[in-house]
Design goal:
There is one protein chain. With about 250 residues, the chain is α/β, with parallel strands linked by helices. It has one domain: Metallo-dependent phosphatases (Purple Acid Phosphatase, chain A, domain 2).
């Protein structure tokens, strides 16, 4: 029997203090509940990873509402997380401190490591810091394969969000070049479900972007605008043969 590990990635909930809060006319709390309800039905999912931008109004109550959504939906699978540009890491650590939430930044299986990277900076754009590189370097085991999950996108997506992408892309690509066991990257931030090639010196790997639980961005707009798509999430299947496959679910 193949021993696959299945990860559900959710991202960009953009919650307000109130469960009736609207983000570009979308009830983002209800959208998050709808996504979690669908994930709850997928018995093959082993782990959930949230890749940032929990809050839109930066209120303590929005963090509490995020926790409430998991309670309401009866989520018991472990939930890992990284900060988005909207988030305050100290508030994430404070409110996401009890089960099902896990504060570890690595998920170890027999054949895989899922490594969570923090890319939040002082601006909406992202940074792959030397500190993050050193932490990841110390964790990566060359006898296993790795999936990296982070908030910001490491290659351009071709629309307005690129002005807030990862600033030091070359540094990040140099890190990827040093670790040939890294099989794929996943991110949030761009509110779209895309597969983008990351062209490295000796290989190409995929960057999978996660649809938001809040709204999906209109890629033809020059500013934030919903394209009307429903909320969604991404599923990764990490196979025993060290291959990764991914699909997107909209609800």
């Amino acid at each position: 029997m193949v021993n696959n590990v299945v990860i559900a990635q959710i991202s960009d909930s953009h919650l307000f203090a109130d469960c009736d809060g609207l983000h570009h006319q979308a009830n983002v709390y209800q959208n998050l509940v709808n996504v979690l309800t669908d994930i709850k039905k997928q018995s093959m999912i082993d782990v959930i990873v949230f890749t940032g931008d929990l809050t839109q109004d930066h209120s303590d109550e929005s963090y509490q509402l995020f926790v409430k959504a998991f309670q309401v939906c009866g989520i018991t699978k472990p939930v890992y997380f990284v900060a988005g540009n909207h988030d305050e890491p100290a508030l994430l650590s404070h409110y996401l401190s009890q089960a099902p939430f896990k504060q570890d930044k690595i998920i170890e299986t027999a054949h895989w490591q899922v490594v969570l990277l923090e890319s939040k900076s002082a601006t909406p754009a992202g940074v792959f810091s030397k500190a993050q590189a050193n932490i990841a370097q110390s964790k990566i085991k060359p006898m296993k394969s790795q999936l990296l999950l982070m908030h910001h996108h490491a290659v351009d997506a071709g629309f307005f969000i690129d002005q807030h992408g990862l600033e030091n892309k070359a540094d990040f690509q140099q890190f990827l070049n040093q670790h040939r066991t890294i099989k794929a990257i996943g991110c949030g931030h761009i509110h779209q479900a895309l597969t983008l090639p990351v062209l490295l010196s000796e290989r190409t790997i995929n960057l999978y972007t996660c649809p938001a639980t809040s709204i999906q961005f209109d890629m033809n707009s020059t500013t934030v605008k919903s394209n009307g798509q429903p909320p969604g999430y991404r599923i990764y299947t990490l196979a025993e043969n060290q291959e990764v496959t991914s699909k997107v679910v909209f609800v």
